[in-house]
Every structure is written in structure tokens, then in C-alpha cells.
UniProtKB/TrEMBL annotation, chain A:
Subcellular location, principal: cytoplasm
Keywords associated with the record: Cytoplasm, Fatty acid biosynthesis, Fatty acid metabolism, Lipid biosynthesis, Lipid metabolism, Phosphopantetheine, Phosphoprotein
Organism encoding this protein: Novosphingobium pentaromativorans US6-1
Protein name: Acyl carrier protein
Cellular compartments per GO CC: cytosol; membrane
UniProt GO BP: Kdo2-lipid A biosynthetic process; lipid A biosynthetic process
Glycosyltransferase keyword on record: no
Function comment: Carrier of the growing fatty acid chain in fatty acid biosynthesis.
Record GO terms (molecular function): acyl binding; acyl carrier activity; phosphopantetheine binding
Source taxonomy: Bacteria, Pseudomonadati, Pseudomonadota, Alphaproteobacteria, Sphingomonadales
O-(pantetheine 4'-phosphoryl)serine: residues carrying this PTM: S37
Modified how: 4'-phosphopantetheine is transferred from CoA to a specific serine of apo-ACP by AcpS. This modification is essential for activity because fatty acids are bound in thioester linkage to the sulfhydryl of the prosthetic group.
Gene, per the UniProt record: acpP
TrEMBL record, chain B:
Protein name per its UniProtKB record: 3-oxoacyl-[acyl-carrier-protein] synthase 2
PROSITE patterns given in the database record: KS3_1, KS3_2
Cross-referenced PANTHER family: 3-OXOACYL-[ACYL-CARRIER-PROTEIN] SYNTHASE, MITOCHONDRIAL, POLYKETIDE SYNTHASE-RELATED
GO biological process: fatty acid biosynthetic process
Pfam families named in the record: ketoacyl-synt, Ketoacyl-synt_C
Coiled coil: none
Length: 78, 420
């Protein structure tokens, strides 16, 4: 597992208060991890902070699973 | 006429994270005061407070017991305290599993005096330092005063009135009084009512200190700082926590075989129409509030056995309240006991009236009145009144009066009585 994936999962566990083993790469934030749309806004902010990336609203809207987040960060981080 | 009784209690205080622990510590004469640990208060005029203790403390508060991890992160501590106290009250009342018809007629009236001040303070710094794009999407609904009621309503599926009082330090008493009226009016059969506060943060302490409301002479002896009626008193000590009761229509409670603590029989409220922070010099608002509550209750002053005073330990307020009680009670003052539990847990602001109402209820249950700590040298105006100095006192307690007064000149009084 990549370092990015580890860090993303850690943020998800902390913010959503879910068990670490539920945070698989396929997991959907809303359907599997109990997030609502505001939780995703907050997660995206936490990713931006952690990785120093800018995630614009139109890109953020497309992030619905853990792997979407990891992929976007891997492709865009400095 | 629909009667209103109390069937559940919940407390989070500086002396315990539940009702029985808090009450035992209150009766034992313990103080919840200490140096401020939440932040570095070394540059503050007031460096002490009555904080709710952390989970690893002997009587500390474990937020995870009743509040989801995610919600804990999103909301201010006053909401966490409120959700927990409401949960305790629902459990105590045996109402965890309500059917839909019951929940349609069950509501919330849990307020706060100030609301999410620590979060407003910290998020303002985020805005200033990192810009608007870093402000939490949960900022607003994590700080709003009515969000204890909102969260509790969602958690327990309460579909009746969803209400929240904001009347500074009278909030808790007004919340219970208003909710009792909603039950009387038939808007609900069950109401969770009370108040919460958590404003021990730099701007909260600085703001009250600048208003000359806080004690500043006892920074090295925190347990001695809250000393209502004592000559050396110099301001209140900030507390935090929550108190919530389950109010229920009497026949409804009886029909389901609920444990009934007491009946809420009188509610009085008034305005000083005088000054934003100073009480009326003749205590006229306090007098009218108490008189109205007694009249509604159909009681005479001599029927009241115990008064839980507003008694914040400020130089002006304590004696004005006592003067109003003296005028209203006349000779009956000889037989009443009156104490301020703020001497032990500090001033819970919007939570005070609810927490102190619960102490009144427990005084009736156990036939004992809680003490006023640190009352070493009572002020001259206190002569001849039983202020229950230092130690709790066994006595008959059949009916009680609870007073709460707030900034803006807002007064509330509640009268409760043992059920016949």
C-alpha cells in the first residue's frame, strides 16, 4: 500500500470515526462509510491540508470513493 | 388540567458526569474549581474555573459514552454535554425505546446562554490565518444554540416541539418552564428540557473578566473563589456542563408506570427593565418572578422548604436576591433553607437553572439540602437566614423554589413539589 493511501485512510478513519478495516480502497464515503455531503467537504479540506494540493470544487464532486481520493492526490500533488 | 411531572434526570458537571456522582460530591461539600487547564490562562486576570473533568479523572466525563465520534469532532463541547445529559435523562425515564405515536408527542427544549464560543473563537483564527476556504463546513451547525435540541431530536426521533431558549443565565430555568407549558397546552406529552454551557476558552474568560463579573482574588486558591453571601466574594467562577430533565404529562407518566420525581407547579418570569449586567437595585425583577411562580403554584411562601438561589458570588447580586426573598417571604424566611450550589460547581450560565433544578429535585427525593461552601463570614444583609453554610443539612423538603437571573435583566423562577 502506498504512503498516500495510508495517509488518506488515516484521515478518513479520524474524520468519520469508522473502523480502519472498513476503509478499503473501493469503499464509498457516502454508501459504505456513513458520510454526508458536508463530511466530504471536510475530508477534501483535510486532504488539501495534508498533501498540499488544491482540490477544486468540480474535482471534489467526482471524489466518491477512497480510491478516487488517492488517485486524485497521486496525480496532482506537488 | 394537564399536570407536568419530572420522570428523568441527566447531569454533566464539574463534580461528575452523571446525576448520582455529582449529587454525592455536592453533598460531601466538594469543589469542582481548579486552575484552568483547557488553555494557557497565564495572561488572564481570572485563571481558575470549574471544568468538567477529563475521562481519566475519578469523576470525569467520557464523551464517547453517548455521542458519536464524528459528532464530537464537529460540534462545540456544550452540544456534547447536552446530548449526553439528555441521553441520561431519557435512559433514567425508561424512554429509550419509544414507539412512533409517543415520539410524535415528544420534544426538546434544551438551550444555552452563549452557545459555541470556543468554536467561534478558534474558527475565526482559521479564517484569519488560512482564509475562508479552510473554515469547517460544520462551523455553523456545530455552534448554534438550538443544536442540542436538534441533535437530540434526530438521535431519539423526537418529532414534537424542537425549541431552544437563549436567556443568558436564566436559560435553564426558562427552558424547563417553557417546556412545562408546552405539555400543559397539549403540544407534547414528553419534553426533554434543560440547558448547557461550555465557554471556558480565552475569549470567554477574558470577556466576563472585562465585564468585572469573574472572581480574580483567588487564583491561587480556586476552591475558595466561589463564596456566595460571604464578605470576601468578588465575582463568579465559570463552570461548564449540562442539565436535562424529562418532563411528562402526569397521566401519561402514570399510565406507563414511570418513576415520578416531583411535579412542576409554578413558573414565574420577569424583566428588570434596568441595566444589561447589573441587577435592579431593589431586586424588583427577582421579587416579581418569584411571586408569580408561587402564585401559579398556588402556594404561600411558608410552603417552600428550600430555595436554590441564583447566588453567583458577585458583590451586588447575592444580597439583592436575598433582599427580594426576605420581602416576599416575610416571617416565613425563618423556616426556609436557601443555598447556592454555585459555591461548588461554579456558574454554569445557560446550564445553571437546569442543573440547579435537578439539585432541588434531589433535595426533595433525599430530604437533604446542599450546602453553600466558603460561607465563612456572611455579609450583614444575610443575618437570620439559613444559608446552609459549609455542610449539607437533613430537613423536610416538600416544595422547592429555584431562581435564575441573567444579563439583560431576565429572571425566571420555578416551583416544584413532591407528588401526592
Amino acid at each position: 500500500m502506498s504512503d498516500t493511501a495510508d495517509r488518506v485512510k488515516k484521515i478518513v478513519v479520524e474524520h468519520l470515526g469508522v473502523e480502519a478495516d472498513k476503509v478499503t480502497e473501493e469503499a464509498s464515503f457516502i454508501d459504505d462509510l456513513g458520510a454526508d455531503s458536508l463530511d466530504i467537504v471536510e475530508l477534501v479540506m483535510a486532504f488539501e491540508e495534508e498533501f498540499g494540493v488544491e482540490i477544486p470544487d468540480d474535482a471534489a464532486e467526482k471524489i466518491s470513493t477512497v480510491s478516487d481520493a488517492i488517485k486524485y492526490i497521486e496525480e496532482n500533488k506537488g | 388540567m394537564r399536570r407536568v411531572v419530572v420522570t428523568g434526570l441527566g447531569l454533566v458537571t464539574p463534580l461528575g458526569s452523571d446525576v448520582e456522582t455529582t449529587w454525592a460530591n455536592i453533598l460531601a461539600g466538594k469543589s469542582g474549581a481548579g486552575p484552568i487547564t483547557r488553555f494557557d490562562a497565564s495572561d488572564q486576570k481570572c485563571r481558575i474555573a470549574c471544568e468538567v473533568k477529563p475521562a481519566d479523572h475519578e469523576y470525569g466525563f467520557d464523551a464517547s459514552k453517548r455521542v458519536d465520534h464524528k459528532i464530537q469532532r464537529q460540534v462545540d463541547p456544550f452540544i456534547v454535554f447536552g446530548i449526553d445529559a439528555a441521553g441520561q435523562a431519557i435512559e433514567d425515564a425508561g424512554l429509550v425505546d419509544m414507539d412512533d405515536a409517543t415520539r410524535l408527542m415528544a420534544g426538546c427544549s434544551i438551550g444555552s446562554g452563549i452557545g459555541g464560543l470556543p468554536g467561534i473563537e478558534s474558527e475565526s483564527l482559521v479564517l484569519h490565518e488560512k482564509g475562508p476556504g479552510r473554515v469547517s463546513p460544520h462551523f455553523v451547525h456545530g455552534r448554534l444554540i438550538n443544536l442540542i435540541s436538534g441533535q437530540v431530536s434526530i438521535k431519539y426521533g423526537l418529532m414534537g416541539p424542537n425549541h431552544a431558549v437563549v436567556t443568558a443565565c436564566s436559560t435553564g430555568a426558562h427552558s424547563i418552564g417553557d417546556a412545562a407549558r408546552m405539555i400543559k397546552d397539549g403540544d407534547a406529552n414528553i419534553m426533554l428540557a434543560g440547558g448547557a454551557e461550555a465557554t471556558i476558552c480565552p475569549i470567554g474568560i477574558a470577556g466576563f473578566a472585562q465585564a468585572r463579573a469573574l472572581s480574580t482574588n483567588f487564583n491561587d486558591e480556586p476552591a475558595k473563589a466561589s463564596r456566595p453571601y460571604d464578605q470576601a466574594r468578588d465575582g463568579f467562577v465559570m463552570g461548564e456542563g449540562a442539565g436535562v430533565v424529562v418532563l411528562e404529562e402526569y397521566e401519561h407518566a402514570k399510565a406507563r408506570g414511570a418513576k415520578i420525581y416531583c411535579e412542576v407547579i409554578g413558573y414565574g418570569l420577569s424583566g428588570d427593565a434596568y441595566h444589561v449586567t447589573a441587577p435592579h437595585p431593589e431586586g424588583s425583577g427577582a421579587y416579581r418572578s418569584m411571586a408569580m411562580a408561587l402564585k401559579k403554584a398556588g402556594l404561600e411562601p411558608r410552603d417552600i422548604d428550600y430555595i436554590n438561589a441564583h447566588g453567583t458570588s458577585t458583590p451586588l447580586g447575592d444580597e439583592l436576591e436575598l433582599g427580594a426573598v426576605r420581602r416576599l417571604f416575610g416571617d416565613a424566611i425563618d423556616d426556609v433553607s436557601m443555598s447556592s450550589t454555585k459555591s461548588a460547581i461554579g456558574h454554569l450560565l445557560g446550564g445553571a437553572g437546569a442543573v440547579e433544578s435537578i439539585f432541588c429535585i434531589l433535595a426533595m427525593r433525599d430530604q437533604i439540602v446542599p450546602p453553600t461552601l466558603n460561607l465563612d463570614n456572611p455579609s450583614e444583609g444575610c443575618a437570620g437566614v439559613d444559608l446552609v453554610p459549609h455542610t449539607a443539612k437533613k430537613r423536610d423538603v416538600r416544595a422547592v423554589l429555584n431562581n435564575s437571573f441573567g444579563f439583560g435583566g431576565t429572571n425566571a423562577s420555578l416551583v416544584m413539589r413532591q407528588i401526592d
